[in-house]
Predict the structure.
Amino acid sequence: MGERNQFASKFGTMAAIAGSAVGLGNIWRFPYVAGNNGGAAFLIIYAIICVLISMPVMLSEFVIGRRGRSNTYRSFMVASGKKGWGIVGAVEIFAGLAILAFYCVVAGWSLEYIFASAMGQLKAVEGVDLMEQIAQMGVRFDTFVGQGGEKILGIYRPIAWTIIFLGLNCIVLAFGVSKGIERCSKFMIPALFLLLLVLVIMSVRLDGFAAGAAFLLKPNWSAVTPQTIMDALGQSFFSLSLGMSAMTTYGSYIQKDQSLVSVSFIVVIATILMAILAGLAIFPSTFTYGVEVSSGPGLVFKTLPALFASLPGGPWVGVVVSPIFFVLLFFAAVTSSFSLLEAGTAYVTEEWGFKGKKINRPMALVILFVLVGTLSVFCALSQMEGSSLFIMETSLFDFLDKLTSNIILPLGGIAACILVGQRMEREVVFDELTSNGQFSAKLVKFFYFMAKYICPIVIFYMFIKGLE
Ligand code: PHE
């Protein structure tokens, strides 16, 4: 195999990996879950879980990738020395592509809203009170995705945006790992951070800032239950892109002299920080207007546009804030989708062939564009009223979400820990984690112990609970 792709700089590596982690999950789910589960109490538990459970899993995935220097399927085989382990890698890759399919649909919505807000379509209507504005935004969104209202009109736009979003991903990836993914992430992740800061600063002047910040940050230990810990674990897995081939693939691009422990630590910190900032950008406006706090598409595409449009200071405030918010949502989504698509691209270019020749990157991206694009279109269609794309009484969209988050993700995490902790030789793992002795082995010992003994049990427990 010729020279393999890799990340070119240390900062670029962190930006790309943090980009995979910081995504829709951090922006629209984490702040809500944290707020409802004890605020700072949840944050503390979350941070502990990230370090004790998720970091060892992330490190295990990095070790497998960097050891295998290949796509997730082959890296699992190389690291274990057994062909059968390749199946685990392959399942993760396909699960990642399934996540990508519904991720593209939602990310496509952010593109629609960037344009709608920039064109002034989300401006407040004079003389209409806030609750009515929110209701109108709700109707706008439902109509757009094809639920209720003028259904026929809404049908092609979400599909078109989904395809455009996937197309943009393919174009960036066609430039390669360092010239495409890394270069974009180096710009988008700092930009995302700055945009979040701008929104937080704008929200500091709101009457509801103190209440919003308190919701997110005031510790309330009485809200913490065993379920809180399960929620924190599930959230941290999804948020840190674990069990889904993304981190194994990115791990294979990390240069040998970069410390895996520092990369994972910085990524965890950056992910938590961005999620807190997202909460501080969102909640003060909900508290200012006494709107019920929520999460998911309802919050992002229905409540927030109406709140932004009504912010004090004149209509210009909404005209500036709304596009900023949707651009940052887009940056968060696109840097995550790169990692899922890259896992598939590495697999196709390295494993598939045609008439004895390997498939090149552009060709692989065309193949994936068609495969993932088709599934995405079905996901978008399954959201529409009257759609019959249902599996086990849930829409294809929700089905893929549940299947991947509740089943494949924890199993993938357990597999990585078992492979690194039980099957690979200890020296090999330590060489990888200390970059051949370049970095201290102290922390490595701790993470190795966790990955070997504790993580598989804890995650398995979470998996069983998740099935109930
Ligand atoms: N971490 C991303 C988020 O928080 C989602 C994701 C999951 C991305 C798995 C890649 C792999 O939205």
